[in-house]
Amino acid sequence: MAEIAALEISIKLKDIKPAVSRKLIVPVTIRYDQLHVLLQLAFGWTNSHLYSFRVKHQPDREYVGYVDDMGIGGEQILASQAYVYPDLQNNEILYTYDFGEDWEHVIALKRVLTFDEIQGVQVPSCTWSRGANQAEDGQDAEAAVEFNRQSLNQELTLWSRAGEQMIRADDLGLIPKFY
User: Where is the Plasmid pRiA4b Orf3-like domain (predicted)?
Assistant: First the structure.
C-alpha cells in the first residue's frame, strides 16, 4: 500500500450567500495551528482574531491558539500540539474564526493522496474556489474582495518555504524579518 503524503480538503464558509468555499491540498502531517494559517490565507484574512477547531463527534474538545485558563467549557488543546488528519479521517471539522463575527467553516476530507499522486503538485495549494473573500470585520457582502487563486498559491509557496515563521508572525510570516 502506498504511503499517504497529502490531503485534499474542502472548506465551506457557513451561512454566506453566495457560497464561499475552497479546496486545498495540504500535507498529511499538518497541525491545527498550521491549518489555521492556511485558512487565513485562503480566505484573505489577517490573523487578527482568536480561533478554534472542533471535531463534529467530539463537541467538548477544541483545538485553540491559546488555552483559556478560566476552566470554562470543555477540553482545550493547543493547536500546535495536534495533527488534523486523525480527526479528519471519519469526521468533519468545524473551524470558527473571530468569536465576535463567528465565521464558521466546515472542513471535510475529500481524498488522501500518495507521493506518486502529488508528483508535480504544489503542496500546499488551492485547487478550486468559489466566492469572494469576505470582509474580516463585518459580514457585509458588499465589502467582499475578489478571490485570486494564483495569488493565493504564490502565498502558499512562500508559506511552504517559511516553516514555523508563518505560525508565529503577526503578518503570517509573509514579510521576512532580519534580526
Answer: 6-141
